[in-house]
Amino acid sequence: QVHLVESGGGLVQAGDSLRLSCAASGRPFSSYALGWFRQAPGKERNFVAAMSRGGGSTLYADSVKGRFTISRDNSKSTAYLQMNTLKPEDTAVYYCAAAEDRKGGVVLTATYEYDNWGQGTQVTVSS
Known about the structure:
Blueprint: E1 2-7, E2 10-13, E3 18-26, E4 32-39, E5 46-51, E6 58-60, E7 68-73, E8 78-83, E9 92-100, E10 116-117, E11 121-126
Parallel strand pairs: 2-11
Antiparallel strand pairs: 1-3, 3-8, 4-5, 4-9, 5-6, 7-8, 9-10, 9-11
């Protein structure tokens, strides 16, 4: 089990950038596959980005590919989501998630594959 806390959200204008952080505590951070998801009002929680335990593999939703970058710093037990060229449709509550991976190399993109979630941070992009 790992406790996750997101931060870095806010209100920005279209074209701006934000960097979200996800601080972790509990189990060794290096043993977890990571994911970022977002949920807009009245909609389901959708996949945004994911990274394997060792950081060697990443996957992005088509809607954010080329604009968002997922990364991690195991020495700080922190995951990041760099968001560039933000668009109004990026407005949502953003959640980080972690799943213990004993094998390594997996990239998880479905909500049911994660059992550790942060409380979310609001990102609002105005036009």
